[in-house]
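Checklist before submission:
- one chain only
- standard amino acids only
- sequence pasted in full

Submission:
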Amino acid sequence: MKLKLLLTFALVVMAKDVVVSQTVYDIKTALQTAKANNRELKSEQLTVQVAQADVVTAKLRPNLSLNNQTLQLAESAHYAPGTQWSNAQNRQVWWQLTKQFQLPSQRKNKIDVANKSVAVSEAAYQDFERNLLTDVAMKWLDVWLAQKKWQTALMAKNNWDTLVTINKNRLKNQVITTTDYNRTELVANQYNLLSQTSKQDYQNKLNTLKFALGVTNDIAIAADDAVELSALQNQDQMLQNAIENRSDINVLKNNVEMMKSNISLQKSMAYPQPELGAIYNPQNTVPYVGIYATIDLPFFDRNQGEIKKSQVTKDKAEQELATSKERIKTEIGNAYASYKQFEQNAGNLKKMKEQSYQILSNVKYAYMRGGTTLIDFLEAQRTWYDSQENYYEAVYQHKESYIQLLYTTGLINQIAQ
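Returned file contents:
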């Protein structure tokens, strides 16, 4: 007896440890965790640092250039009298120190383009985060739906396991036929298989969510609704907010600004960059000094191609921005309409779910007292099961449409704050 008590106590402690080690996530905490730990998001953050490094490069000035040329007399007949080949009188040495000079406008425009590129990278990171957080929210919903399906299948299995036990005794008492008992057992086995499959599907989706969150400990999801549906703005306000603040729109806006700066840069690069320096040239021990200067003569190449390309690229960026703003209107309109429709569907199916449960209870009561057939009971059970699944599918679609609405309006990032 003491051994049994000790074993029971040990099992309780172990179970408690398992529960404690699990972290329960709702939508908000899941998005916050993904924002902090997701591996892909961490990798994308480095892209911004790459763009910031380009600013450092743009601020650097051209290095000095040191050039040396040494000419040695090749024939000893021409050596200075009484000297060897290594004597300085038998060679000419050329030392040249030069530096290319950037025009102030060129350096200024390079830095401006690099800074605008950082803004584009930061906006692109925010858009990557928006897409990733939406994906995490959808994965959370997948786990939620899989859990509901597993729980429904498990409830049906337990109900039929109980019925199998009851009908086994009823068969002994010759209250039902062997066929009815076999049918009961067959349905119980089907629900048992369904519950096992549903459990595995739930576990697979939970593992997928776990990876998206970037955590290693055991996780579970909250038992309440998938997301708290807050009051929504009207459609016009959501549209205006999306056009002004959505991350992909900010990417395009910053890209247009960068293209404008690039036009200024390419125009400034049409001017040649002079290279100036000094020369020290000892010839056969006779020192000479001089200056060095070179500059391109822009008769043919005045950077026309890059200037034209920068202008076309800017026009393309502006066209993409205008197109995206028009597309947002359609996206938000569709998302808002779907949200309203699925909200209505969920309300209607909730009533049907409650009705099917009441019907199942009545039919079960009648069957246990011989007032109806097993076929009627099976049909009521199937209707109840379908109503459960249809209801949870509708709730899933309702929550999914809400998240899609947050995605299209660019508000999904706010949940992770």
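Reviewer check: The first strand starts at residue 23 and ends at 25.
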